[in-house]
Design a protein that fits this description.
Helix 2 crosses helix 5. The chain is of the alpha/beta class. It contains 15 helices and twelve strands. The two termini are 36 Å apart. It has two domains: 131 residues, no CATH class; 256 residues, no CATH class.
């Protein structure tokens, strides 16, 4: 039997559209329609001034190319990762014109971290302090204009593995180094003491910075910070301070251990210290989202937990360890194998509803699993971690069934050893 899909009438479409616009206004935001009209008016007003400039840029393009690019300044992960990947690829001559060129950048209206903005401004050189998006759109609209767009096809994914073999493009000034050390002392971290950045993604940041948008489609990525406490306690026994990171967080950490610092909610958090901590930590422990981009671009080792979706694993860093969330198939009351996840397409789902539609529940890593990964990272950094033939075979089994795609180059990262030992049945 075929379903009878009733097509919505024109009138019903208009009614839903106007209702949506009214809801946007009541929520305190500009409706989409209004924003688009405003953008069009701005373009028309600037057209008499921009058109001559566009013609000049196009006329000289056979000899000298001027390219434009938007810095993804609204989200710290992309602001950090996308920009660093661009610089690595630029240095390697990838996605660059064969003739002389200059790249000119502008930022999104909202800048998520002022310190990161300052550091990119020092590094990129050609960053304009005002919005030139109308000029960018106009020059690309003219036929053949794509040559004037900066290509960053892999976003923050370093598929060529450049970060493993090149130094970071960002560095701190002498004054910033002194300021960072003073900041650590103010938190109670003695000079030279090793520390780990702890991060558990939740929905608080996006809900606070853009409350007019429904962010529930991202909920599958969230993690419970309290599941990380066991690992944090273990790391303090091994000599580390553990600093909980986050610009806005849903829950505080109520812990008496003085070596576990809830920097995200104790009033000491600043844009500057976010970047300094991410750049100077011994390693990062937590969810690969948001803040995670900062330690990655500074080449810090990363122990990543609660990774989802599975096919978006951070595969390109050799000093990375990962354990994924597990996929519980509600209809069969069992976990899906890795191969089933890949074959079903669920390994690429980027929306909470897609998991619900397939009757899949995403299960977070347990405190024991997170602690085991933290211990493995610590012992690897100390040079005392010992692997065995079974561990190596389990790693190979995982990467043999992992699909090759445009999301990955060489597989350099490792899956947590204890996680694979305890979940051998998921490899078949």
């Amino acid at each position: 039997m075929t379903e009878n899909h009733t097509q919505p009438t024109y009138g019903s479409k208009v009614t839903r559209f106007l209702k949506h616009q009214a809801e946007q206004v009541r929520a305190g935001g500009w409706p989409i329609f209004t924003r688009k009209v405003f953008a069009l008016l701005k373009l028309l007003l600037l057209l008499p001034f921009a058109l001559p400039l566009v013609l000049i840029i196009r006329m000289i393009s056979p000899f000298f190319v001027i390219r434009f690019g938007l810095l993804a300044s609204e989200r710290i992960g992309h602001f950090a990762g996308n920009t660093e990947v661009y610089l690595c690829e630029r240095d390697a001559g990838i996605n660059t014109p064969w003739r002389p060129y200059v790249d000119i950048w502008y930022r999104a209206p909202f800048v998520c971290n002022i310190q990161l903005k300052k550091m990119w401004d020092r590094t990129l050189k050609h960053v304009v302090p005002f919005d030139i998006s109308p000029l960018d759109r106009l020059i690309r609209w003219v036929p053949g204009g794509n040559v004037h767009g900066i290509l960053m096809p892999n976003q923050d994914r370093d598929v060529y593995g450049f970060m493993d073999n090149t130094p970071p493009h960002l560095c701190f000034t002498v004054d910033e180094e002194r300021r960072g050390k003073d900041g650590l002392m103010a938190m109670g971290v003695p000079g030279g003491a090793p520390f780990v950045c702890l991060y558990a993604r939740d929905s608080a940041y996006l809900a606070t910075t853009d409350p007019n948008k429904d962010w529930q489609y991202h909920d599958y990525r969230d993690s419970n910070i309290h599941n990380h406490v066991w690992a944090a306690e273990e790391l303090t026994k091994r000599g580390y301070y553990v600093i909980r990171i986050g610009a806005v967080v849903a829950e505080n950490l109520n812990i008496s251990n003085p070596k576990i610092i809830d920097y995200a909610s104790n009033g000491q958090r600043t844009d500057f210290m976010d970047i300094y901590l991410g750049a100077k930590c011994c390693f990062f422990l937590g969810t690969p989202g948001g803040f995670f981009g900062v330690p990655v671009i500074f080449r810090r080792p990363c122990a990543m937990v609660n990774l989802v979706p599975l096919e978006y694993i951070i595969s390109w860093i050799s000093n990375g360890l990962t354990i994924p969330k597990k996929y519980w198939l509600c209809s069969d009351r069992r976990f899906m194998t890795f191969r089933e996840i890949f074959d079903s397409g669920a390994g690429r789902f980027l929306h909470t509803q897609k998991f619900k539609d397939m009757n899949i529940e995403i299960i977070e890593n347990t405190p024991e699993e997170i602690a085991a990964l933290a211990i493995e990272m610590d012992e690897k950094l100390r040079g005392i971690w010992r692997t065995n033939d079974e561990d190596e075979e389990l790693q190979q089994q995982f990467w043999r069934i992992f699909p090759k795609s445009e999301l990955h180059g060489e597989f350099r990262a490792k899956i947590g050893s204890e996680f694979l030992r305890q979940n051998k049945d998921l490899l078949y």
